[in-house]
Design goal:
211 residues; Glutaredoxin; Glutathione S-transferase Yfyf (Class Pi), Chain A, domain 2; 2 domains; globular; binds glutathione
């Protein structure tokens, strides 16, 4: 297998933490996003959405989209499980993973990509160009703060997003919080449960080695 990657950016970081939790090593090939290599015909043939991470299997099949790659790796390396083992765990983890991605990660991406400084004509990632919408910056900030309030409440009675075990949902949430810090949105002081969870997951070796 080969992994198409780019250091330090959020979605590849989600996958790299996931792989480190499982002890999976895959040779990495860097796609330089700053040089626009994601749009080259060669890479586009592997990753139709022109994004990283993208995994290429030994038979040439390519899988992009972080969650899809993680699900593939979970199937071939089930231990330790990060998407649950019982039907209930699998459902609850996927629910929180999607809530964290939709309400948290995408809100940060809106704030980050629609601001004045970068991404001219690239308000969304993918093969097509879209103009930025400046109003999404403020809406993104409000959505992040609402997300923080909601997950602070959720974490009142449990260590991790889906109960007592670290899971893929915690990885999505952690990368979201750290991405929001880049975008200068901090966890409000009063959200003690969220601060406690963030400190706990930030100490994991998989996270320290991908910080
Ligand atoms: N939905 C995709 C999003 C992947 C994504 O946003 N990747 C970014 C790096 S974090 C990227 O490749 N950006 C390319 C660009 O900005 O053109 C996933 O879940 O993997």
């Amino acid at each position: 297998m080969k992994l198409y990657d780019y250091p330090g950016v959020p979605n590849p970081r989600r996958l790299n933490i996931f792989m480190a939790e499982k002890g999976i090593e895959i040779p990495r090939f860097q796609i330089d996003l700053l040089k626009g290599e994601q749009f080259s015909p060669e890479f586009r043939a592997k990753s139709p959405n022109c994004d990283v991470p993208t995994l290429e299997l030994d038979d040439g099949t390519c899988i992009s989209q972080t969650n899809a790659i993680c699900r593939y790796l979970e199937t071939i390396h089930p231990t330790p499980p990060l998407f649950g083992t019982t039907a209930k765990e699998i459902g609850v983890i996927e629910m929180w993973n999607q809530i964290c991605f939709t309400n948290g990660f995408q809100a940060v991406a809106d704030l980050f990509r629609n601001g004045p400084d970068w991404f001219e004509g690239r308000g969304l990632i993918g093969p097509h160009n879209y103009e930025k919408i400046p109003a999404l910056v403020e809406r993104g900030r409000v959505r992040i703060l609402n997300f923080y309030e909601d997950i602070n409440h959720h974490l009142a009675n449990q260590c991790y997003f889906a109960g007592n075990h670290f899971s893929a949902a915690d990885i999505t949430a952690l990368v979201t919080v750290d991405f929001a810090q880049w975008a200068k949105v901090e966890i409000p002081e009063q959200h003690k449960n969220l601060h406690h969870w963030h400190a706990l997951v930030s100490e994991r070796p998989s996270v320290l080695s991908n910080s």
